[in-house]
Every structure is written in C-alpha cells, then in structure tokens.
Amino acid sequence: MLVQKKQRLWQLIPLLLFFYTNLAALSEKIEIKNLSNGLKVIFIRDPGSSAVCTALYFRNGVRHNPPDPYGSAYLYQYMMFYGNEVVSPYEQVFFVNRTGGLISGKVNYDFSFFYSIVPENEILNILRFENQRLKSLRLRDDDIEEQKRAALERINNSLKQSITQRAVFWLQENVLEGTGYQQQLFGKTDEFSRLLPEQIRKIYPKFFCKDNIFLIICGNFVVSEVERIIDRDFKAINFSNNTNNYSSEPFKLRENFLQKNWVNPNSNIFYSYYAYKVPSFFSRDYLMLSFIKNFLADNRSGRLQKMFAVNNIKAEAEISLSEFFGSNMFLIRISAQKQSDLEIARYILNKELENLQMNLLTFNEVKFIKKILLYDFWKRWQNLEERALLIASCLNYRDNFSYLDSFPDQINGITAYDILRIARKYFTRNNLVILNIYGI
Questions:
Q1: DSSP label at 240?
Q2: Strand partners, 115
Q3: Whole-prediction pTM value?
Q4: For 101, which of 42, 89, 118, 195 could close a Cys bridge (C-beta 3.0–4.6 Å)?
Q5: Maximum separation of any 2 CA atoms in the chain, in Å
Q6: What pLDDT digit, counting tens, does each position of 401-430 carry?
C-alpha cells in the first residue's frame, strides 16, 4: 500500500508543476498570418523545444466527401506520403527519418492532418518538402492504383485478423446511425476498390481549395526566417476556388435499445461492449464524459478494475471515447477468459453505471479525477503534433481559441452534481447498444 501511494505521488509531480504554469492565455502564444492566395499560416513558437513540427491541416474530412465516391479522402492519406512531381515517392519520409524525426498523419471524419517533426535546424528543408507536396501531389493513374491496393490490403488484413476491430465498426455504424460518422473512413471495401483515378482527380480540387488548408509551424524556430520562406514559396501556390460546407450536424440521442450476440469459434476470450451516443468533442458535456471515462477505467484510478479485484474475478475493462466534432461514441469493453467472470464483470459494470446516476461522487474522488484531466491536458500540450492539431481543430470548429483558454477553468469547475446530471442524461437504456462476443 505504501509503495502504491509513493508511485501515485511520483505520478503527480509533473501535475503539481503544471498547476504553476500559466494556462489562462494559451492562445496568446498563437499567431496567424493570411497569405494573399488564401492560405492560412499558424505560428506556435516554443523556444524551450529542440524540435519543430510542420503540419498541413485540411478542413475537409471524410464526412465532407460526396456519397459517390465515398472514401476518396481516405485515399489521399496514402497519396500525401507518396511523393509529388518534384520529390520521388517517400523521399520526404526518408528525409525525416534520417534526421531522427517523426512523420505521420491521419484522415478523420472532420479533417485531414499530416505532420513532420524534425530538429530545429531542419525547418527550412522540411518547409520545402511541404511546399512541393502542396503544389504538385502525384495523382497519376499508376500511383493512385498502387496506393489504393496498399490501402485495401491494410483494411482487409485488419478486418480478417481482429474480431474486436469488426466489433467496433459494427457498434459505430449502429450507435452513430444517421450521422456523418456512421460509415467507416474507407466506406465499403467493394466500393472503395472500384474508385477510379479520374474520380480521385475530379474531387481533389475540393480538397485543395484555399479555404480548406492551414499550414502550421509549432516549436522552436526563428519567426522572421520562416516568414521569409513562406512569403517567397507558399504565396505562389495557386489553390482552387472551391468552397466546402464545414458545418456540424445537430446532436440527438438514440431512441431504441439494441443488443446483439456473436460467437467467435477462434477465441477463448469473452467480450461485452456497451456503447453510448454522446455529443461533440468541443461540448462541455463531453468534458464530463471524459471525467467519467477516467473515473471508471483509467489505469491510475479505475473504479471498475478495483471492483473486479475485490470480487476476485479475472476481467479487464477499457473505455474509449471518440473525438469527433459532431456525435461521438462512448465505448466500454469488458473481457474475460471465463464466461462466469464476464457475467460478474457485467453485473459490476451495470451497478457502477447505476451508482453514477443515483449517488454523488465524493469530494476526494472528484478532486483526484480533475487532477488527472488537467495532467492529461498538459501532457498532450507538450507534444508538438498534438498541440498543432488541437489548435487547428479549434480554429476549424469555432474560428477562435476560446476552448483552449477556458479548458483549465472548465475542468476545475466540474462538480459531483455535473457528473450525476451527465450520467442520467446519457447512460440510458434507449441510448445504449450492447454487443456480446462469446468465445469457445
């Protein structure tokens, strides 16, 4: 017990330092420059960092795709790393790897985000790569077909190897039914496989329009030096004049309980999934749901795992919460190697969800989870790519940074009554989808 308390104290040391950090005006560290060609450039300077992150943020996500052909934005994820008419395939990837940096990206329902992190002395070189990637992405027939095959292979392997992945897909389709988040990012595999190069090229101007792209530079750099490169090279890019609709869908709770049972003859593990429909990532209710997620299943404080141990059962509990601009899925997964343990774990889960709706949490419970939320926010802010993504998403969704500036105060303002209200509002039977997977 003493060891556990010491470990918990060590975990909170960065948090104590975090409390003395000025979080009230995070947006004061952000500068925005609008180029004459419509490109918006976001500067976030951090002199304490030894690296710099450059990122391209496209406000056009998968849900903005036309229904036919659905999945084109997902394919751009592969094309963005493949090269362009000046840079050979994967040359930017090889360059970043040689510097000891990191290059990655993702296509989401609400946006597409591609970033590189390199040592601060490589900022000019990485900007040249980003400039070429914007000006002349490779969209030749052979290149598109090759990347489509690579994407399909990855999708099919994931679906074949993991029943848990198929479970999450099924739950998302049912929990978020009727929203832009219902289909998977790639759509249906048979339709994705039929995407034609001319379709991809036809849709690309909507992806490449001037109001759709943010260039973000975050980390340690000389602003005047970077501005000179941007003024010289990025102003000359000719973007399309297409316009996009970035509005979010209104949120509405589910109205019908749904339960499904699967049998997996290839596994001896039993699963139960509880999935609830919840609102926007930027809503205050979402913050309360993040609190509940940490209270129930965080490895530093998880209530469910403690109750499993008290009842002497071998079961695991995990909770995930999607981060979409519109509707989201609050997903609880419990698993066990014995069906009897799973049944007990499910009973415990039901009782804990019921308790959240009937009883107030204690002062100390609320205080500790708020500290965890603050620490996790601080930790996320320290990652250059996460900081760049969060800032761009705030600008995309709200056209301002009020979410960032108010976030610490919103956490500190959480009360036990807030948690009670949220549990009663969202953890209802009609808002629930259950999937049980029985092993052999």
A1: B
A2: 55, 104
A3: 0.90
A4: 118
A5: 67
A6: 888 888 889 999 999 999 999 999 999 999
